Amino acid sequence: SSYSAAGHSAGRAEAMARMRASFSSAMQQRHRPFRCEVCHYTSSSRWHLKRHQMIHTGEKPFKCYLCPMTFALKHNMATHMRTHTGERPFRCEVCPRTFSQQQGLKKHAIQHTYFGFNSAL
Fold first, then answer.
1. Are 71 and 77 in contact (CB under 8 A)?
2. Per residue in 9-30, pLDDT tens?
3. 63 - beta bridge partners?
4. CATH no., domain 62-115
5. Element (H, E) at 107
């Protein structure tokens, strides 16, 4: 069996071309825009589109076991559970106040900035 450098180079070039085409196809598949059929929303993620579509379907698969509230996202249900448990994991660095949601802490911190860092709100 004789070795052909030219044949080896051509074979390698073909393999590289196939790999590039396969990669390009995979990237287009992964990053193609997923479109909502109800509105003009698009996403590069199938998961984000599915989450968005819950707006239109009203689907809320996560139910609080302590009250009638339901949620589209598990994270929102977990945040809601703090209303039942009294958990307040977000602590102000300036004063002793705590908050059940990060958004509450952010609003509070703005007041410290506006009124001064040493003011106890």
1. yes
2. 677 888 777 777 776 556 555 5
3. 70
4. 3.30.160.60
5. helix 102-115
